[in-house]
Specification:
Layout lengths: L3 E6 L26 E2 L8 E7 L2 H8 L7 E8 L4 H9 L2 E2 L2 E2 L4 E4 L26 E8 L6 H8 L4 E9 L2 E2 L8 E3 L5
Parallel strand pairs: 3-9
Antiparallel strand pairs: 1-3, 1-11, 2-3, 4-8, 4-9, 5-6, 7-8, 9-10
Length: about 190
């Protein structure tokens, strides 16, 4: 049976197992042979990363044809208007084409606030007293490079913090930043 590992990737970690320049990588956290990331998160993003030793499963997770939904919690600069949220939902024109429709919701406060908030981010998000921020939940069924960041910037609200919360049937739940667990759930 194939292995599936759920990892809560911290900010600043590369989605590869080695880096010649000494930047933190998956290998600094996961000592499991022959597993590979099914998708990526950029160095500045954090949250759920699924790793597996099963090439078919890896393809099912990452292939746009399968439209496996991915949910991101996104802290943006400013407070998006209803029109900006509609634009994100309908799809945004980017240099590499228009994005597909997205499920976008404004979140009340910081995610997990009932549990004391998200884990601390290192480095912390820059705080500016005169510029409010807002949290959005954005669910996509595609995966263009740095898509969420480019979408929010296109509607005038740059991303400050991006946390992937869910991929298909898997979610972070209580997994602490930098920790991993094995899962027996299959999409």
């Amino acid at each position: 049976m194939s292995r599936v590992i759920l990892f809560n990737k911290p900010c600043g970690v590369l989605c590869q197992f080695r880096d010649p320049d000494g930047v933190p990588t998956l290998g600094d956290y996961i000592d499991v042979p022959d597993v590979y990331a099914a998708g990526r998160l950029d160095k500045d993003s954090e949250g759920l990363l699924v790793l597996t030793d099963d090439g078919r499963l890896q393809n099912r997770i990452t292939s746009p044809e399968n439209k496996l939904p991915k949910t991101y919690w996104v802290q943006v600069e400013g407070e998006p208007s209803d029109e900006a949220l509609k634009q994100l939902r309908r799809g945004v024109h980017l240099k590499d084409g228009k994005t597909r429709r997205a499920d976008v919701k404004r979140m009340a406060g910081e995610p997990l606030s009932e549990h004391g908030g998200l884990w601390p981010r290192n480095p912390p998000v820059r705080y500016r007293k005169s510029v409010p921020t807002c949290w959005l939940s954005i669910t996509l069924k595609e995966g263009k490079n740095r898509q969420v960041r480019r979408m929010t910037a296109a509607v005038g609200h740059p991303t400050l913090r991006l946390v992937r919360w869910r991929i298909g049937p898997w979610q972070l739940a209580d997994l602490a930043s930098g920790d991993w667990i094995e899962s027996d759930i299959r999409p």
